[in-house]
Predict the structure.
Amino acid sequence: LQFLYLIGDLTGARQRADMMRPALLATLGLALEAPTAAAAGGKPHIVYVLLDDYGWADAGWHRPDNWTDVQTPRLKGLVKEGVELDRHYVYMFCSPTRSAIQSGRNPIHVNGINMDPSHSNPEDKVSGYAGIPVNMTGMAEHMKAGGYDTHMYGKWDAGMATRHHTPRGRGYETSLFYFHHANDYWTMKASGLTDLSNATGPAVSQTNDKTCSQDNQAPGCVYEDKLFAGEVKRAVAGWRDGDAPLFIFWALHIVHAPYQVPQEYLDMFSFIGTHGRQFYHAMTYYADEQVGAVADLLKAQGMWDDTLIVLHSDNGGPIAGGANNYPLKGGKFSNWEGGIRVNAFAAGGYLPAAVRGTKLTGLICAWDWYTTFAKLAGVDPTDHKAARAGLPPVDGVDVWPYLSGRRADSPRTTVPIGNPGADSTAGPVTMGGLIDGSYKIVVGNYSMSGWAGPTNPNSTVHWNPACLFEVCGTTPATGCLYDIYADPGEHHNIAAAQPRRFRALLAKMHTHAVFNPNRGGVNPDALKMGEDTYGGYWGPFVLDV
């Protein structure tokens, strides 16, 4: 059942050896002698945590201290001892943000649509696939070059077609993940096949019995995010003084649909009468506990002082589901602030003491971490392989000088914003806006064009924000322009009042070219190979690249 994408001389031996560490794995290392020295070369361990569909108002640090239904005490604690990133921007939905993170590009230069990973275009061997083009260098490839031990656990959603589209193909030595936008938390099924893999192939031994479900959480049924968190803990607990520093990309399934969670956590929120919100907050609390447990383990292992944690969401919360982005406008699938401005912070002892407990309000984007981490690893983030293939260059900027307090302002001053159009799975992608300093122009037709209240969804107000549309045109009379620092909720459209500024931002927006390769249609080989070659699991299906 091994995937047909083994690269170089890595045979999976390291991953199997890690899994065989004796009592260490049973106790997650807490009873073992803790290392005290820094990682090799003084480089920090980096734990990059990506939450899925995490709403702005579903973070405890965006709520009053006495708020009851949102419970994220561990994340809130990390924010207090770390650096809150108040203006952290992403794409409006999943796969483009994840493609941006792994490639260091703005989604308009890598992938701006949520295409099913079974697509391919046989006429284009470089870019004719869902996700990231073959010839773009992955973030973990740079980290490996900088001497890091690279790990990826959780949701991938950045391609599947070829061996190059897998986490291993992008530089992750050890992994446990699923390819699609979502799978079932208990059966691991997605689009008819099982979607759970590791660095060498289908993760058969870690797949639940087919009878496991939200309604049947029998002994032996393991919640998927527990699996991923366990692998993160395993990597941390297995580190020893003198080992290479760790680079862990941990992309939780939570809080993406389907809304599923261990029953004991759901019962903790039985006081919430709205089904979607009850599940959503139970899942959020589960994630909060797991992130907190990893922080505790880093401290127990003597690694905290040499660790940098970065956490953010891949997009705003889906307010048509159980999420809430109050007081921001809109949510997932829109370019309003509630769709692209997300919860984010940095923590860990590697942060200088002077910046801990502060808030940064300068612009930072998800694709900036590619460049930032490469610089911390001592590696040039320039993508020479992509340049030789004629692909767009890296867009990310190094934000460590800003994060660490060495400079007062962010090196990022603009955020070009893409728009997938009416079909988020097919495009074509066009320019959908631009943030320039404190001003933001929005162009296009968007749903989610409204504001949730402090408690959303609830049992007294029934509205479907997916049906709330607003059209932002290309003239001052029809356009949308906001001062998002003075008006973070986007209540006051100033396009008509400031026509000169509107036209200047519109012109600046149109200076950005958009990458729109023909990614093809559904390739029947994807399903066929999943059934016949991988034993009912999804995996790469284009073998001649």
